[in-house]
Write a structure and sequence with these properties.
Layout (H helix, E strand, L loop, with lengths): L12 H9 L4 E5 L36 H15 L6 E5 L9 H12 L4 E8 L6 H11 L17 E9 L3 H6 L6 H12 L4 E8 L6 H12 L5 E6 L7 H8 L9 H14 L5 E4 L19 H14 L9
Parallel strand pairs: 1-2, 2-3, 3-4, 4-5, 5-6, 6-7
Helix pairs in contact: 7-9, 9-10
Bound molecules: iron/sulfur cluster.
């Protein structure tokens, strides 16, 4: 068996940061006031059929507040739960964090990195919202060439910079059906251009989009392995109230894979067994606040409980990340 940090049977992002930086890096979700080409009319106005960004916002993260104020409130909020955290990553999760002119990106991300305690940024975006110029900026940022008066010494002698792409599916027919307005080849290009500049590259996938099955997803893990990713997040499909996906599910439930929680945990184990062992796993399930979700198939189970179940199931099956890779 491969030996992973923390006695786990898979590689966690927390252990990756602990190895590099000696401790926990606490993420603070911020809103940089970006929008998305799939909503502002450039590619479309309706957005992806599963999307409602309001479902993914903590209260302190509001685009109308300056970045410094969001960070101030975010740190107060996070200290209640993680009192020992002293280093933070500013996480721009909403919409597309590279969908703006370069000068605007510089303004937002340099403001975040100048806030005391913030040692890095995580930028969530679409793969069609990056270009050479923007990626060169993030590469310069991550190599420490840009930030003036950087107050940290080792191990933070340069900022942590992560670009996190919403890829969602490796299948073009699925991407068309959920109205992503980009294809998988676009994601492959963006990930390659990012990783070749030495920027940490993450990706997000949704498990259970319409027309996908357990078999097609397991087959697609090979395509994920072929991407030069540092980390990966998997979320089960959660039907957010008022989205077109909720309506589609009501009309065509037969197109959606339904899993009870124990079955989903086994499915996550199947995925991990096929996943490259050097890839960090940041999530295997999502946690949209209950008031936004149209059904609570698994009850009100929390993410940490799901992770305990995952550990137990990996152990019971005597398996680990990459065993079948
Ligand atoms: S999921 Fe992302 S890309 Fe799709 S509509 Fe929402 S913000 Fe835009």
């Amino acid at each position: 068996m491969i030996s992973f940090p923390d006695g786990k049977r898979y590689r966690t992002v927390a252990s990756h940061y602990r190895e590099l930086y000696g401790g926990r890096l606490q993420k603070l979700v911020l809103d940089g006031g970006f929008t998305c080409p799939n909503r502002d009319g450039t590619l479309g106005t309706g957005g992806c059929t599963f999307c409602d960004n309001a479902a993914f916002h903590p209260g302190y993260s509001t685009a109308s507040m300056p970045i410094s104020r969001q960070l101030e409130e975010g740190i107060v909020f996070s200290r209640v739960r993680y009192p020992r955290a002293s280093h933070y990553l500013a996480y721009f999760q909403s919409y597309s964090g590279t969908y703006a002119p370069l000068d605007r990106l510089k303004e937002v991300y340099l403001a975040a990195l100048s806030y005391p305690g913030v040692v890095g940024i995580v930028v969530g975006t679409r793969p069609d919202c990056v270009d050479e110029e923007k990626l060169d900026f993030f590469a310069d940022l991550s190599s420490g060439r840009i930030v003036k008066d950087w107050a940290y010494g080792k191990p933070f002698d340069k900022p942590v910079v992560v670009l996190e792409y919403g890829i969602e599916s490796c299948r073009d027919e699925t991407l068309r059906r959920v109205n992503r307005c980009h294809d998988f080849a676009c994601a492959q290009r963006a990930v390659a251009m990012t990783a070749e500049r030495g920027i940490e590259t993450g990706a997000h996938f949704i498990l259970g989009l319409p027309s996908e099955t357990r078999e097609t997803i397991l087959e697609d893990v090979a395509k994920i392995n072929a991407l030069p990713l540092t980390s990966v997040k998997f979320h089960q499909l959660q039907l957010v109230k008022g989205t077109r996906m909720e309506e589609e599910h009501r009309l065509h439930p037969e197109d959606f894979m339904e899993m009870e929680l124990p079955e989903y945990i086994d499915f996550a184990v199947d995925i991990l067994e096929r996943l490259r062992p050097d890839m960090c796993v940041e999530r295997i399930a999502g946690e949209v606040p209950p008031r936004f979700v149209s059904e609570h198939r698994w009850g009100l189970v929390r993410n940490f409980e799901i992770l305990h179940m995952l550990d137990a199931r990996l152990e019971a099956r005597g398996t680990w990340q990459g065993r079948l890779c």
